[in-house]
Amino acid sequence: MRTPKNILVTGGCGFIGSNFIRYLLARKDFTGRIVNLDALTYAGNPQSLADLAETHPDRYRFVHGDICDEAVVKRTFDEHAVDTVVHFAAESHVDRSISGPAAFIRTNLVGTFTLLEAARAAWKTRTDVLFHHISTDEVYGSLGPTGRFLETTAYDPRSPYSASKAGSDHLVSAYHHTYGLPVTISNCSNNFGPYQFPEKLIPLMILNLGEGKPLPVYGDGGNVRDWLHVADHCAAIGEIIARGRAGETYNIGGNNEWKNIDIVHLLCDILAEQTGKRKEEYTKLITFVADRPGHDRRYAIDCGKIERELGWRPTPDFRALLTATVRWYLDNPAWIASVRTGEYRRWLDTHYGAR
Ligand code: NAD
Ligand code: DAU
After folding, report:
1. Which residue in 336, 345, 123 sits closest to 246, CA to CA?
2. What's the CATH superfamily of 6-196+227-255+294-315?
3. Which helix (H) or strand (E) holds 9?
4. Annotated active-site positions, please?
5. What is the whole-number distance in angstroms between the Cα of residue 16 and the centre of ligand 1?
6. Which atom of ligand 1 is nearest to the CA of 68?
7. What are the structural domain ranges in the chain?
8. Which of 5, 135, 171, 267 is close enough to 32 for a disulfide, judged by CB 3.0 to 4.6 Å?
């Protein structure tokens, strides 16, 4: 059992990173310190953690910096005596990787390389340290109607985003095999929950439903994703950094496959329930638009390994978790206003066009 003292979280102002920092600070058995290194790109929102400077002044520090900046990364390792890295920072949105792949190559590949080099230099022969790399099920490619991704499934990334994540996974793995760096990797399915930037399917639909705007469904709406609440993802990462075996990969998923069109209908249903309006007021907004180029058809994760080895399991009640998520977006207009500044835009206006 590892008990990290000084955790470097990269990308902690993003969706999953901010949830993970809150999760760690809420754990009674974690008494260590957290340093959050984030470049505050369009997806990074300091508002997501605004209260922590006051509630945890001795245990939480924010460093505004880029993971590609060697000097900043080295200084962060040294000044904070980092013994554990949980590496979330990335360009994370597939659509953006199609229209502008350069940032994905830079942050996801060069940034991960820069962190690995800093860890290698700072830790030398230490074995009580861990570099945990957060990755995605998208590295495994696209499934047909049956089967699920295992940790042993061959990589087959198909978008610039998933290719850059696959490359970063290989780098992390190579640093373990070549230099003996203690690493773990997790490949997770689609997350939902509070603080998610509203370019992703679920928060985008919730905002558009709330404002009576079109609900853009790509292609025929039959693409399948395996949805997991972000709190479950954070708990899985918590188990891995405490008890995961160095050199291992762990798949994380929700056992919860949905076609996109069915998720959109479910959201219409929940909105109607929450507002008292007729469901048709919402379903009439559904708009089929041109498909995402190279759109992966189906993802599904087999998370048997982490269940067996670390006793982690996803929470089963999807409708209840999704309803709580809808409520969070309806109840937090100030957070939504804060992410709409800067480079915020909804993709319906800018890409693929109408079908
Ligand atoms: P996000 O886009 O919400 O947040 C990314 C964060 O990284 C932001 O705070 C941003 O400012 C920061 N960042 C970006 N470039 C940086 C750089 N060069 N230096 C420092 N910080 C930088 O992402 P997310 O959805 O929270 O995803 C986090 C991680 O989890 C990513 O690695 C992603 O690939 C992986 N992942 C996401 C999902 C999902 O459903 N969202 C599922 C599986 C895996
Ligand atoms: O599977 C894990 C991955 O999940 C993560 O690695 C990525 O960081 C994360 O962005 C997510 O990728 P997806 O492409 O699956 O998520 P997104 O929310 O963009 O889209 C989910 C599905 O919904 C996908 O099939 C495309 C579709 N979609 C998406 C949007 C934004 C629509 O039909 N309409 C939309 O407006």
Report:
1. 123
2. NAD(P)-binding Rossmann-like Domain (3.40.50.720)
3. strand 6-10
4. 137-138, 161
5. 7
6. 18
7. 6-196+227-255+294-315
8. 5
Q: What is the pLDDT of residues 73-86, one digit of tens each?
A: 999 999 999 999 99
* Ligand 1 pocket, mutate which of 13, 15, 40 (most atoms under 8 A from CB): 15
Would you state the structure tokens that stand for residue 220, as one six-digit string? 């025929």
Query: Distance, CA 89 to ligand 1 centroid (Å)?
Result: 4
| Ligand 1 pocket check for 40: Cβ under 6 Å | yes
**Alpha-carbon gap, residue 149 to 156, rounded angstroms:** 11
Question: In this structure, how many other beta carbons lie within 10 angstroms of the beta carbon of residue 272?
Answer: 17
Assigned token pair, 253 = 């998923």
* Grouped pLDDT means (10 residues each) for the chain, 355 residues: 96 98 96 97 92 93 97 98 98 96 98 98 92 98 98 98 98 98 98 97 97 96 98 98 98 98 98 96 97 98 98 97 97 89 49 43
Instruction: Give the full edge-to-edge strand order of the sheet including 224-229.
Output: 190-192, 224-229, 257-259
3-state class (DSSP) for residue 135: strand
Q: Which residues line ligand 2 (CB under 6 A)?
A: 92-94, 136-138, 189-190, 200-201, 204, 216-218, 223, 225, 260, 292, 299
DSSP annotation string for 161-229: HHHHHHHHHHHHHHHHHHH---EEEEEE-EEESTT--TTSHHHHHHHHHHHT--EEEETTS--EEEEEE
* Segment 264-304, tens digit of pLDDT: 999 999 999 999 999 999 999 999 999 999 999 999 999 99
